[in-house]
Amino acid sequence: MMKEPLSLDGRPLLFSRADLKRLLIPLLLETALAVTIGMMDTVMVSSCGEASVSGVSLVDGIGVLLIQVFSALATGGAVVCSQYLGKKDTVNAGKAAKQLFYVVLLVSSAIMAACLVWHSQLLSMLFGSIEPDVMSAAQAYFVLTALSYPFLAGYNAAAALLRSEGMARETLRTSIIMNLLNVAGNAVCIYGLGMGAAGAGLATLLSRVAGCFATFFALKKPGAAIPSPALLQFEWRGDLAGKILSVGIPNGLENGLFQFGKLILLRMIATFGTVSIAANAVGNTLGTIHCLPGNAIGLAMITVVGQCVGARAFDQARYYTRRLMYLSYLFMGVLNLLILAANAWVCKPFNLSEETELLARQIVALHGAGAIVLWPMSFVFPNSLRAAGDARYTMAVSALSMVFFRVVVGILLARQLGMGVLGVWTAMQIDWVCRIICWVVRWRSGKWQTKVLV
Length: 454
Prior knowledge:
Blueprint: E1 7-8, E2 11-12, H1 17-45, H2 50-86, H3 90-117, H4 119-127, H5 132-146, H6 149-164, H7 168-192, H8 197-218, H9 238-270, H10 274-290, H11 292-310, H12 314-341, H13 354-373, H14 375-380, H15 382-387, H16 391-416, H17 421-445
Antiparallel strand pairs: 1-2
Helix pairs in contact: 1-2, 1-7, 1-8, 1-10, 1-11, 2-3, 2-5, 2-6, 2-9, 2-10, 2-11, 3-6, 3-9, 4-5, 5-8, 6-8, 7-8, 9-16, 10-13, 11-12, 12-13, 13-17, 16-17
């Protein structure tokens, strides 16, 4: 463990070791629980056959795209609020929180309406002529999950605000509620009522509604650093919304383009047949588990570095970035070595055919190895730049790297060199290497210190 100095920048540390533990431990547990919502949908719906698994996995590609957009907007609010908290300006932190809710609810409602009206056209455009039973499952799951988008966006906004003020235990409690409801709903709707993919969608909808209201009411807890936003007392602050969007839009575009690139590749994978679709779905599900510790530490990075930057404590920002990266590599290494050791068994719960399971195991092994060596620097480290407000740079790098390395190289490896779905996963790691080089160059240049928002 890194030795903790008594002070930096001539002032006491903003976060003690105990503070970091109170932030990180609930985040690690919460992230693990949050991932199980999508994973349990896939595992529990697998009892209905590979067509249902494939349909749910295809829609999950769209869902992840939109989740990333909502999370990006929430991150914009968290960065602004964290920097205000670093300045000890709780009044503007509360006003920024209110603007965040207005922004995410407006965007998510518009997206929900578009998805409900044009769900058939969107699925046909994205995935082409997939098998009829797969398309039927995808449409049923898509409509029900689309109804949950405003609630999901509200949950992301409230959870981001809670984390920015160090109340990670509250988001953990909400995650537990969401997961219990999701599993119970899946059991009733899939096993009890025989609804298949539609049952998984309904359970997800109900769990997200509950999560949204639970996190919003947690913001009203007495003694919270950020005043609870009174949404019904409408007040539009264009300056604060602009600060949120200055991070949220680049981050949303970055995440949106990233997931859109994955959808392009998923469309190509769909042409390889049900075996490749199902194996890719399992790879995505288990790949998410590979990255659990890094995702949690990345969320903590926004809060910690954001407050350091708001206080203009740049030496502390550097110190905590190094410390959190150390923890990221430690936890990611331990988890993924264990999963690699259990590679022969990790795909068993998905009830796959022998051919599909073999391909899925190859994908899981490839991704797990990269998650140990490359993933933390590629995805955790840039959150330190975003927390400082340097979101345009991260957007530009991510978009260009996604297009040229993951998509173009992925298509080349998969089609031209005949590697199939494994070519897509290989290109992914080439993309990671490019990102790492760009992040390190930017960090060492010190230009991120000039991007402070407040």
